[in-house]
Design a protein that fits this description.
The chain has 127 residues and is α+β, with helices and mostly antiparallel strands. It has helices at residues 9-15, 22-30, 76-80, 87-102, 116-126; strands at 7-8, 34-36, 39-40, 46-47, 52-57, 60-66, 83-85. Helix 1 packs across helix 2 (22-30).
């Protein structure tokens, strides 16, 4: 019989809305992007309240404590109640987002299609 206080890691990550699908959560676990209590965790590992997770997802790197478990994906406010993010993690993610926002757009230097002169310069440079 399944323990109601424990849930598979990939199901919990999906229910807590860190990944859009459970298979993406499984892939992240297998790639080593998820650490449970300081160790790389497999997708079938059980998560229980009080565990510490480090989650590297497309949204950034989260350091959090598991507050509650659920294997059902619900609305965002319910999902956010499943964990408590550390202040240091939140500040680091906000700083990274600000740096990305202030970074110059990579396409600013591009001016469209190269001219014939540009092509000749490129060919001369290549040898």
């Amino acid at each position: 019989m399944a323990d109601p206080d424990r849930v598979r890691l990939d199901k919990w990550l999906w229910a807590a809305r860190f990944f859009k699908t459970r298979s993406l959560a499984t892939d992240a676990c297998q790639a080593g992007h998820i650490k449970l209590n300081g160790a790389v965790a497999k997708p079938a590992h059980d998560v229980k309240p009080g565990d510490w997770l480090v989650v590297r997802s497309p949204g950034g790197e989260f350091e959090l404590k598991v507050v509650d478990v659920s294997d059902l994906r619900g609305p965002a406010p319910v999902a956010q109640a499943l964990y408590a993010e550390t202040d240091a993690s939140r500040k680091l993610r906000e700083r990274d987002a600000e740096q990305r926002r202030l970074a110059p757009e990579p396409s600013v230097q591009l001016h469209g299609r190269p001219t014939k002169r540009d092509r000749r310069d490129i060919e001369r440079w290549r040898g």
